[in-house]
Structure formats: structure tokens, C-alpha cells
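Here is one chain, start to finish.
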Amino acid sequence: MDKQDSTIEDISMEPNDTPEGWQAECERAVLNISNLLYLAGRRQTGTAVLEMMRSAPRTPQEMERLTKDSLLYRCALEITGQCKDGDFQMVHSIISFFEYLLTMPPSRRSMLEASVAGVMLGWGMGW
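Its structure:
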């Protein structure tokens, strides 16, 4: 399969600790969170991405106890029933990403949050 023929489903969610793999994992986090914010009609600011990343549930039990005032809950509610035909692949990718976050070991999740925060800080400073 050519690189151009790949789809979002073809992208592995398996950890890859090479520099390129880690960069792709950070990009995937920012992309999926930004897409969720976009579909919910919100601005995709670095602050919103970081808030969503840091406040996303870490376990299935936390997901079940997600409060109605959390940003993730509000965004998910806002996109429910509002998706256009072309948005379903994006929604599937977002759901897969958050499911992956739930299974991520705490140390890797902390490292991902720190990496995303560092990139967002650098981006905000004009890098």
C-alpha cells in the first residue's frame, strides 16, 4: 500500500519509542483533540488542547465518572447529532484516540502531556 493510500484506521496506536514515532504520537494527540474542539465549534487554542489533554480520563472508571462540567463531556455532547456525513471518520479517530489514552501507562501519559505542553508553549512563543 502506498503512503497516500493509508487511512486513519491504518495508523497504529501501538507505542513506538523512536524519535519519529514519538513525534507522530504527539501530533496524533494534538490533531485528535483539535478535531474534537473544531467539531464542537470551539477554538483550537493551545490552552484548550492542553486542558483537554490533562483533564481527559486516565482509566475506564474515570471515564464513567466524567462530570457534565468537564470540557471533554461538553465537547462530546456538542458534536452529538451535529456531525456531517464527512465527519464520521474524524469522530471515529477521536474516539479511538481517547480509548488509547485510557489504556496508556501513567508514565507514558505524563510524558505525552509534557511533550504536548512543551510543543504548545514553543508554538505560542513563535517557534
